[in-house]
Amino acid sequence: MILELDCGNSFIKWRVLSPAQTGIVAFGSVGVMEELERALQAIPALALAHARLVSVRSDEETAELVAFIAGHFGIDACCARPELSRGGVRNGYEDFARLGLDRWLAILGAYQQSPGACLVLDLGTAVTSDFVAPDGQHLGGFICPGMPLMRNQLRTHTRRIRYDDAAALEALVSLEPGRSTVEAVERGCVLMLKGFVQAQLEIARGYWGDGFETYLTGGDAKLLAQMLPRARLAPDLIFSGLAVACPLP
């Protein structure tokens, strides 16, 4: 079996693949390594032979994760690293090592699924966009605050904006002008995201007309799925790129 980890700043997404990589045995999301240990121990007949991970955490935290896997399961984890090129894609950053690993793997995953021009939109804590030309040349991209950052900034810096996550979710049943603070904030943030995404589409059309694929990934991808009916909703896009970056021996 193969253990895959996507270690973000707040959560660790994980999944276990069957030995032949033909299906997902189990998956989940945890906050700390102890929770990951308990989740994996609950899988019947778990027999890990390989592990690979991507981490945007500090070098020390990533080293702890690698040591945890080695200590508990007796296997060495392959860690995705910054690269100038991989899987037919060439990193477009002036300093290739500065491109976030989550963005790099999402690009690799998208190009692996459909080699050709593509726009990759990752809607998480931050929202990122990346443009890849038909020949695999990464053209760069943009970064802006995502829903969690926009929401938390308003809550933190505006005294009278106070509401919980349940109210936030309920407020998004429509995008009509808000008649309460929670509706006004949540719907306003979504409209800002929509404006950002619309600008990315215009840039992509300027490059390639309609001859490109759009990929949506990240926790808030579903919020904009209706706006982009032709887009590919790909929640596991980073894992797809991880398989490209860390192929099995």
Automatic annotation (TrEMBL):
Residues that, per the record, bind ATP: D6, C7, G8, N9, S10, F11, I12, K13, T125
Catalysis: reaction(s): (R)-pantothenate + ATP = (R)-4'-phosphopantothenate + ADP + H(+)
GO molecular function, one term: pantothenate kinase activity
Key word Kinase present: yes
Subcellular location: Cytoplasm
E.C. no: 2.7.1.33
Function: Catalyzes the phosphorylation of pantothenate (Pan), the first step in CoA biosynthesis.
Annotated protein name in UniProt: Type III pantothenate kinase
